[in-house]
Request: fold
Amino acid sequence: MGAKEVGGITVGVSPAINLKEHINNYNYPYHPDIFDSLIFTGSGYKGRNVTLVRSCDAVISVMGMIGTLNELTIAYDEKKIIGLCLGTGGVSDTFLDVLEKMGKSIDNIISSNKPSYLVEKIIESLNCL
Reply:
């Protein structure tokens, strides 16, 4: 909704093969006033997550559950910039710790409990690429 407020376009990526499956099988809402375009992968959650992550420049996690963990691991593997909004609970608060405990690089991770600062730093990082 923030993107729409500043004249941006929004694209949703669905695990379903069509709108009927999107609504009935996955119980996802469809709001034409939110999404300018909705891509149906027909690949289930795993395939949707790969498509979703590969099609963006950075991934921002706010809270997050097991599906978000999958998206973050894909983003990490794809060497995407990852933003973690701290203090929101879930995977966002634990992903950095997991990487550090595993001895993994955290060079592409930006974390903050201030969303505006987080977005600002991600944009700066993208402009440096």
